[in-house]
């Protein structure tokens, strides 16, 4: 008979065994069994469905205390609504439900927890219902007060709980398929540990978030409903981003936090994928989708096609309307819930989301001067390159002979597009050519469907792009160069952040300064210095350069000594010349080596590069440092590199640094 079965037999006979095996089986905690009863301290939990399983997650300590105070406040406590998780969720006490405030999410059950039992398939503890926990607590109180143990309780689900003593409390679950004629309940199922109070179970309970919000950032996702390799939603990924920021504020802005200069930065997700795919387009696609390789085709329809949707004027309008209206809606709601908020607003986009935000920002109108903004908007491009002239259009129509007439009348392409048949007839153009010209320009006008970009109700301070294809899309659209004087009408800052192996990311700076080759800004490691393998690589590069210089110098000296003239009559004068020339040559060698060494130093400490006004005159492209394991095979980590930003401390720290820098708050120690 196994040890578990023997324990089951002993417990069914109500025999309190105190053997060492029994203690290890039920994970006993050494504690003194006092005769004085102390009420249990409750903690509030909420239930989330993770991987199709119910998981009970504790509220942070501050939220749990607020919920307990509201619960204990009096008769009207059940009608109260308590904001939790930094104001992103509301808990309705009467319903015992937790609702998301800013986005759509399934409501979560909330429970005031005091008693727990260990789960079936993992080591996580599951709380009993509030009503049954009260029964357990009353039974425990009587057992402690009267010192009478071996109490047996049966739950509404026919589960048996036995309180042997304060050290040993177990839970039996009925075996599936057993009936009333089977064995007794205590002999059914595997015994599970029962714990009283959250302090006796292994669970991480975090502290609350700072109440003060210094800055608000909207985060827009890229293609598809999943944002990382774990197929998590934008809400879950932004939760990670926010958690990393809270940790970095504690470690890198410790002085400012201790002086109560800063609180925290709030990150709120913006979802446009669900509204786009709720338009009925998925049904239309399903009708034409082939039945083979069903999962791959479903993945393509759900993710990759988002890129094509954005290139379609019809669905592009839906996407930009959704993103802008969602950000405006959330901003308005945020101000209603945080009336004392005085901070600024920034926006961040990942992958295609960054392109959506770029297009929206480019088409904003400055409230101080809409006309000036409209004039500035086209200046993002200096050279379009592919736009045909009027003469080329007429040549394509084989109507070159009429170009002089248009030139004489000062009619350009825009004016010609407005001309009617009567206008062309008055200019002396025959019927046939008139029909050709009118049809050509009418067709081109109809084929060009414009997108009306909505306006934001706030002015973003900084735009952060993560793994962004903006540069590629601008180039494909025929835009060759960004005007160095161009800047967003309403946004002052722009940071293009990417991983070096990200296959979707492209640079921006070469479009502003096309004639100069220079490296992007290297983002410092959040722990300071460069990563070890990068320093090692640079050290080896310098070493090889030094060896090369020394070898060239030695070969130069050997070649001079080998080609020296052997005549005795010239030796005296030669030695004199050598004394004059050798220092010169040695100085040349030293200068050669020095120039090459200084060139390396110049590369490291290069003067500031002018990259236009898109980021207020500062650098735009910022590259992350790859991890050592990633440097072994960049192809293997390419996809992961595109999805790495959500948990990247280096990315989050750069965002925090730039935001707080505008407020005159800097890192405790500048990173190298």
Automatic annotation (TrEMBL):
Residues 456-661 form the DDHD domain. Belongs to the PA-PLA1 family. Residues 1-23, 570-594 are annotated as: Disordered. SUPFAM superfamilies: SAM/Pointed domain. Residues 30-112 form the WWE domain. InterPro entries: DDHD_dom, PA-PLA1, SAM, SAM/pointed_sf, WWE_dom, WWE_SEC23-DDH2. It holds the Pfam family DDHD. PANTHER family: PA-PL1 PHOSPHOLIPASE FAMILY, PHOSPHOLIPASE DDHD2. Residues 1-11 have a biased composition (Polar residues). Residues 12-23 have a biased composition (Low complexity). Residues 575-585 have a biased composition (Acidic residues). Gene3D superfamilies: Transcription Factor, Ets-1. This is Phospholipase DDHD2 isoform X4. The gene is DDHD2.
């Amino acid at each position: 008979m196994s040890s578990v079965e023997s324990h089951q037999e002993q417990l069914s006979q109500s025999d309190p065994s105190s053997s060492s095996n029994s203690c290890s089986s039920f994970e006993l905690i050494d504690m003194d069994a006092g005769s004085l009863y102390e009420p249990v301290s409750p903690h509030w939990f909420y239930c989330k469905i993770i991987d199709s399983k119910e998981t009970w997650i504790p509220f942070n300590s501050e939220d749990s205390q607020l919920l307990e105070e509201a619960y204990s406040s009096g008769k009207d406590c059940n009608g109260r609504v308590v904001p939790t998780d930094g104001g992103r969720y509301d808990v309705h006490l009467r319903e015992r439900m937790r609702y998301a405030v800013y986005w759509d999410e399934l409501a979560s059950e909330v429970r005031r927890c005091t008693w727990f039992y260990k789960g079936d398939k993992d080591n996580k503890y599951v709380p009993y219902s509030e009503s049954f926990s009260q029964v357990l607590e009353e039974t425990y109180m009587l057992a402690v007060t009267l010192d009478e143990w071996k109490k047996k309780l049966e739950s509404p689900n026919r589960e048996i709980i036995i309180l042997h003593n304060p050290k040993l409390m177990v839970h039996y679950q009925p075996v599936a398929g057993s009936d009333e004629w089977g064995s007794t309940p205590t002999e059914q199922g595997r015994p599970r540990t029962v714990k009283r109070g959250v302090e006796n179970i292994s669970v991480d309970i975090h502290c609350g978030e700072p109440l003060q919000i210094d800055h608000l950032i909207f985060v827009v996702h890229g293609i598809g409903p999943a944002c990382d390799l774990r197929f998590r939603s934008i809400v879950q990924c932004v939760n990670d981003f926010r958690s990393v920021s809270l940790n970095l504020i504690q470690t890198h802005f410790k002085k400012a936090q201790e002086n109560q200069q800063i609180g925290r930065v709030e990150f709120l997700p913006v979802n446009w994928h669900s509204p786009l795919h709720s338009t009925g387009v998925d049904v239309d696609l399903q009708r034409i989708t082939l039945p083979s390789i069903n999962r791959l085709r479903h993945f393509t329809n759900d993710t990759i096609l988002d890129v094509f949707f954005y290139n379609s004027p019809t669905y592009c309008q839906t996407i930009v309307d959704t993103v802008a209206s969602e950000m405006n809606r959330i901003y308005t709601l945020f101000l209603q819930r945080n009336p004392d908020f005085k901070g600024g607003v920034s926006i961040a986009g990942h992958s295609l989301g960054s392109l959506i935000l770029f297009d929206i920002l480019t088409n904003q109108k400055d409230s101080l001067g809409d006309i000036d903004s409209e004039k500035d908007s086209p200046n993002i491009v200096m050279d379009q390159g592919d736009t045909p002239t009027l003469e080329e259009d007429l040549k394509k129509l084989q109507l070159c002979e009429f170009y002089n007439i248009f030139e004489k009348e000062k009619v350009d392409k825009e004016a010609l597009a407005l001309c009617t048949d009567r206008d062309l007839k008055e200019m002396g153009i025959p019927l046939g050519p008139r029909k050709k010209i009118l049809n050509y320009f009418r067709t081109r006008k109809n084929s060009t469907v414009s997108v009306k970009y909505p306006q934001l109700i706030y002015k973003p301070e900084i735009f952060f792009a993560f793994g962004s294809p903006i540069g590629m899309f601008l180039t494909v659209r025929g835009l060759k160069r960004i005007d160095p004087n161009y800047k967003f009408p309403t946004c002052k800052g722009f940071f293009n952040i990417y991983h070096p192996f990200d296959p979707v990311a492209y640079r921006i700076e070469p479009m502003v300064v096309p004639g100069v080759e220079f490296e992007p800004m290297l983002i410092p490691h959040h722990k300071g210095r460069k990563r070890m393998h990068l320093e090692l690589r640079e050290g080896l590069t310098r070493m090889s350069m030094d060896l090369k210089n020394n070898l060239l110098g030695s070969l130069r000296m050997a070649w001079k000594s080998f080609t020296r003239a052997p005549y005795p009559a010239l030796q005296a004068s030669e030695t004199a010349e050598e004394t004059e020339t050798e220092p010169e040559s040695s100085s040349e060698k030293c200068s050669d080596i020095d120039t090459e060494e200084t060139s390396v130093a110049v590369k490291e400490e290069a003067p500031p590069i002018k990259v236009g006004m898109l980021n207020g005159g500062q650098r735009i492209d910022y590259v992350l440092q790859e991890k050592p394991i990633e440097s072994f095979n960049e192809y293997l980590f390419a996809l992961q590199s595109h999805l790495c930003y959500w948990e990247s401390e280096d990315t989050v720290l750069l965002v925090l640094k730039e935001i707080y820098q505008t407020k005159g708050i800097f890192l405790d120690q500048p990173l190298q």
